[in-house]
Amino acid sequence: MTTTFNALQTTPTDSEPTPTPPRRISSSTWNRIGLGVLLVGTAVLYLWNITINGMGNQFYAAAAQAGATNWEALLFGSLDTRNFITVDKPPLSQWVMGLSGQLFGFSSASMLVPEALMAVGSVALLYAAVARISGPRTGLLAGTALALTPVAVLMFRFNNPDAAMVLLMTAAAYCTARALDGGEQGGKSHGGRWFALAGAALGLAFLAKMLEGVMVAPALAAAYLVAAPVPLRTRLLHMLGAAAGFLAASGWFVVLTLLWPASSRPYIAGSTDNNFMNLVLGYNGFARVLGHNHPAFTPSTAEVGTLAGAQVHVATGRGGGALGVGGWGSQSQGLTRLFSGEFGFEIGWLIPAAVLATVLVMIARGRAPRTDRVRAAAILFGGWILVDGLVLSYMQGMIHPYYSLSIAPAVAAMFAIGVGQMWARRESWWCRIGLAVTLLTTGLWSWWTLEGNADWLPALKWAVLVLTVVASLALIAVLAIQPRRGVVVALLGVAVAGALAGPAAYAVATVGAAHQGGGPSVGPARAGGRGMGMWGGPGRGVDTPELDAMLEETSTPWSAAIDRSSSAAGLELSTNTAVMAIGGFSGSDPTPTLKQFQDDVAHHRVAFYIATNNHGHGPMWGGHGHTDIATWVASTFDAVQVGSATVYDLSTPK
Asked: To 5 degrees, how large is the angle CA 223–CA 240–CA 231?
C-alpha cells in the first residue's frame, strides 16, 4: 500500500518534461536574414520616390513609349511608333521598359520601376558570386557596397541602357564563379555549361550597350583559363562554348537586321549605311574610344545655356571635369579621370581600396593551388577593373561619367574580398596591416572626395576621417594583443561603416534629387541645375502647349518632322504622336534624303515641319546635316510662329 502511494506521488514528477535550452539561430540562418535585409533595403532605396525623375532621358523614354504600343517599335528600339528611326543603341533595355508599358500602361513608374528591380537583381547576383568564393559575409559586404555606390543609385533609377547592361555583366560574373567549381559539382560538363551561360549573358549585355557590355570578357576568360578545375584542353573547349553562347545570344538580332528588308524596318540610327555592325564598330565602337565623335558644340565658358528658364552653370570638382553637364566639357583624360570631377563622386570612392585589395589578395594566395577560387576572383574582378577602367580613363571620344557604372560591381566585389581575406588571415601581422590600410585608404579617399564638395554637409568628411582613422589604427593595436572577439568585430564594423559612409551619403542625396536629360549627375541638387543633367541642346525648347495642340489634332502617320531625335522625343512624349526625327540623334544620319522627304510630304505622311534655332550650329558631329530639307521647306511652304518654333504647314504649298 505504501509502495503504491509513493508511486502515485512520484509519477507526476517523473512525467514532467525536462526543460530544454533555447535554440540558437544558426550562422546560415543569420546569413539568409542578412541577405533578405540587404535585398529589401536595396529595393526600398532604389524604388523610393522613383517617379521624381519623370521621363528621365526623354530620348529613351520616347522609344519606351513607342514600344509600349507597337511591336515592331519594341523589337527594333524605334524612337516612334511609325518606325522611322531607332535610338542609337541596341534595343534590349527598351524591350524591358516597353513590355512593362504594354502590361501596365506607359508611365514614369512603368518605365523606371523595372530599372530599380534590376538593381536588386544585380546586388543579389554579386552577393551570390562573391559568397560562393569568399563566404556569405563577404558577399553581404560586396552587395552592400554596390547598393551604396552613387552611380548605381543614379543609373538604376534612370532609363538609360546601362542598368540592363550591368545586370547582365554581373550575371556573367556569377556564371563564371559557378563554372570555377565545376569539377566539384557535377564534373566537366557542369563548368562548361555555366561558362557557356556566362557567354550568353555577355551576348545579351552586347544587345544592351554593344561593346561596353563585353569589356569584362577578358577578365572572365582569364579567370576561367587559369583556375577552372579541368584540364587545359577542356578549358579551351569550354571557352569555345562560351563564345558560341555569346554568338547565339547576340547574333540572332544582328542577322535579323540584315535579313529584314531595310525598306520595311526603321533606319538604324548612328550608322552611316543602315547596318547594325557599322553602328557597333563605328559610332558606338572605335569612333567613341578614339575620339572621332566629339560634339562640335562643347561649351567653353562657365555658363552654357538655359534649362527651364534658369541658367545652367558648369560645376567643377577636384581635379577638373564637368559636373553639371554630365561629362560634356573639360575631361582629365588619363589615370586620374576616375578619381576627379564627377567621375570621383560617382565611382571613385572605393577604387583605391579595390586596387589595393587585388594586390593583397594575389600576394596572400600566391602559393595556393592553380584552382584556388579566391585568387581566381581577384583575376576576375581585378581584371574587370583593370580592362574597363583603362578604357574609361583613356577614351578620347564623348564620355559621360555615368559610364563608370560598368565597373561598379567589380569595385564593390574586390573591396569586399580584400577585407574578407585580410580579416580571415588576421593572425598574420602583414594581413592585419593590410586590412587596416585598406579601410584607412578608403576613409582618407572619401574625405578627399567629399572635400571636392566642401559646402555640402561639411561635418561628414571629418566624421568619416575620424571614424576610419581611429577604428583602423585601433584594430591593428587590438589585434596584436588578441583581445575578446567582440571588441575586434566592433572595431571592424566601425571601420567598414566609416569607409562606406561617404558613398552612402552621396547615394541617399542622389535619391532625393530629380534627374532628367542626357547626362545626369550624382549627389545633392545644386542651384544652377546640378542633378538635372546635360542641357537640352538645339531645338529642345520648342515644345509649347500651342504646338502640342496642333500636333495632337493631326491624322497623318507623322504629326511633324524636326531635326534630331532629342527634339522629336520631347514632342512625342507631350503629344503621344509619332514625330519624324530628321538626322537621328546627332542630326547627321543620312535619313531621310530630300527625295524621300518630298515623297512623304507629297503623300501626306507628315503634317508639319518644325524649324529650330540651332544658334549657328550644324550637326553635333560636324557636317551639313539636312539643310537641303530645311531650304526646300522654307521655299515651298509658308511659315507661322508657334511659341519659339517656326512651323510650316506641309499640306498647303505656297
From this structure: 60
Residue 252: burial class (beta carbons within 10 Å; 0-12, 13-18, 19+): exposed
Query: What tens digit of pLDDT does each residue of 109-151 get?
Result: 999 999 999 999 999 999 999 999 999 999 999 999 999 999 9
Predicted confidence at residue 629, as pLDDT, reads 94
Instruction: For 482-501, give the DSSP string.
Output: ---HHHHHHHHHHHHHHHHH
Measure the CA–CA gap between 407 and 397, rounded to whole angstroms: 19
Taking only the tens place, the pLDDT of each residue in 44-84 is: 999 999 999 999 999 999 999 999 999 999 999 999 999 99
| CA trace torsion 19, 21, 22, 25 (10° rounding) | -150
Contact 402, 155 (CB under 8 A): yes
Task: Please report the DSSP string for 111-165 in residue order.
Answer: HHHHHHHHHHHHHHHHHHHHHHHH-HHHHHHHHHHHHT-HHHHHHTTS-STHHHH
Residue 501 vs residues 40, 349, 431, 453, 479: alpha-carbon distances, Å: 19, 10, 24, 15, 24
- pLDDT tens-digit profile of 582-639? 999 888 889 999 999 999 999 999 999 999 765 444 444 444 578 999 999 999 999 9
Tell me the C-alpha to C-alpha distance, in Å, between residue 77 and each of 15, 80, 364, 482.
Answer: 75, 9, 48, 61
Centroid of chain to Cα 543? 29
Half-sphere exposure of 204 (CA within 13 A, CB side): 20
Q: Read off the pLDDT band of 284 (50, 70, 90).
A: low
